[in-house]
TrEMBL record:
Native source organism of the sequence: Nocardiopsis changdeensis
Enzyme Commission identifier(s): 3.1.11.2
EC class of the enzyme, as a word: hydrolase
InterPro entries: AP_endonuc_1, Endo/exonu/phosph_ase_sf, Endo/exonuclease/phosphatase, ExoIII-like
Designated name of the protein: Exodeoxyribonuclease III
Domain of life: Bacteria
NCBIfam families, alphabetized: exoDNase_III, xth
Domain Endonuclease/exonuclease/phosphatase stretches: 5-257
Keywords for this protein: Hydrolase, Magnesium, Metal-binding
Family: Belongs to the DNA repair enzymes AP/ExoA family.
Length: 266
């Protein structure tokens, strides 16, 4: 099973670009594609995006128009689809969608981005507080069923210093706060999940998956690694390969995030 995840930074805009999302999807070898920051409902998407040939599409738009939104595209129809993770505040926020494919559940996550000293950061912290117990409980539930989970998406937290270029300048900024990094420690500690790409590249800076549109961040590879595939340890033991599909040049970018693709032996 090949799984890709990418924050599209507005699916309608990404689809209009050339090359863009539609070109990437048509060339992709993925079996499942997780999208974040879709910012659209199905009726607002052109047919080649809402229902591309050969793909099944599950979409969870946000109740707030033009915000958030996650989706799962798959070659085969999911056995089941669930929106949200049981927390009322975030049920219609377009931030979590989970789909079952045989022994593997695949989730698309868009964790709030936050901003220190604002309600956005408070929202992020509430989401994190509610989401960790879900991860713990869901892992145990699936373990009893002999099944696995991979949570793909924009986690909006760089876990380690190796996960962003200018880490010293960002220690007081949302996305690299000590308490956010400690929360990620808990995801990989008490919750028992595995950061797939970091496990594949333990000693490498990056590989980054997001670069600001400002200045020459992309050209200089001044990025952040905030897009993850996080999975149960049993599935992590069956990872074959993984990579960030970095754009060849600035002109070829159709999002400020690049796809993260992993091949699992299932």
């Amino acid at each position: 099973m090949v799984i890709s995840t990418v924050n599209v930074n507005g699916l309608r805009a990404a689809a209009k670009k050339s090359p863009g999302f539609v070109d990437w999807l048509s060339a992709s070898a993925a079996d499942v594609v997780c999208l974040q920051e879709v910012r659209a409902e199905a009726a607002q998407l052109p047919p080649e995006v809402a229902s591309p040939p050969g793909w099944h599409v599950a979409l969870a738009p946000a109740a707030a128009k033009g915000r958030a939104g996650v989706a799962v595209y798959s070659r085969v129809e999911p056995d089941a689809v669930r929106v949200g993770f049981g927390e009322a505040e975030f049920e219609a926020s377009g931030r979590y969608l989970e789909a079952d494919f045989g022994r593997v559940s695949v989730a698309s996550l868009y964790l709030p981005s936050g901003e220190v000293g604002t309600e956005r950061q408070d929202e992020k912290e509430r989401f994190m507080k509610a989401f960790l117990p879900y991860l713990v409980g869901r892992r145990e539930e699936l373990r009893k069923q002999g099944r696995d989970l991979v949570v793909c998406g924009d986690w909006n937290i760089a876990h380690r210093e190796a996960d962003l270029k200018n880490w010293r300048a960002n220690t007081k900024n949302s996305g690299f706060l000590p308490e956010e990094r400690a929360w990620m420690d808990r995801v990989f500690g008490e919750a028992g999940y595995v950061d797939v790409v970091r496990a594949l590249f333990p000693d490498q800076e990056g590989p980054y998956s997001w670069w600001s549109y400002r200045g020459r961040a992309f050209d200089n590879d001044t990025g952040w690694r905030i897009d993850y595939q996080v999975c149960t340890p049993e599935l992590a033991g069956r990872v074959v390969e993984g990579r960030v599909e970095r754009y060849p040049d600035r002109a070829g970018r159709w999002s400020d995030h690049a796809p993260v693709t992993v091949r699992y032996q299932v």
